[in-house]
Amino acid sequence: MNSNKIIIFLMLLVLPSLVFAERPSNVGLNERVIQLEYEVNTLQQQVSVLMSRLDNSDLDFDGFTVAMGDCNDADASIFPGAVEILGDGVDNDCDGVIDNVTSGTQVGQQSPDFSLPDTLGNTRGLYDELTKSAGVVLYFTIWSPINDVHVSHMRAEVMPNFPEISFFLVDYVTGSVIDSRTAQLSNGFADIETLVDIDQAVFNLYEASMGTTAVIDSTGIVRMNEDYKDGTKLTDVLTNLN
Ligand SMILES: [Ca+2]
Ligand SMILES: [Ca+2]
Ligand SMILES: [Ca+2]
To answer: How far, in Å, from the CA of 94 to the mean position of ligand 1?
Structure first.
């Protein structure tokens, strides 16, 4: 074997190890990349499963999930359709706008205007009355004994404390101004102004029932809309009006 043959022989010995020295690392890298891609995909799938579970869970138990539009699933007072509370800096009803007022007759909403005849035949408009008083109270009556108890209590215990408030009975059953005036007088409430809701428009507007008491503040915001009960709530609401 001459020196050339020796060199070629040595090269044949060394060359494969040089070639294969590269290949295992390439193969390893590719496998690693494939493995990583698989792991990333798996993680992405797990994250999206978790996110969808979060979107579909009701963590504050208010009946609304994030997927249903709950914009704060850690606060049960915040959900789509909740009453927007003015001035708290929170989008309570999840409509995307903070402290905006919606029109309606639920507490916190801006009451639509309405007008009704009173039992003396004058037309009385809500917002017209609000320009003349610090607020309006509507009490829905059918002149029943329960109404008698409520109104007698309201006259004795509430009205004297709030002279700047306009109190109205709303007669939604009598059906005519003349008959309503008769009922008002025979029940002994001549001193409390009475509105005649002949077609029950305001009764329906306020989604009222017998004894419902509504308070509308001077800006037209509904501050109470519920049964009179013992009058405590009415006094509380009127005390905190402004
Ligand atoms: Ca919720
Ligand atoms: Ca809002
Ligand atoms: Ca708010």
So the answer is: 11
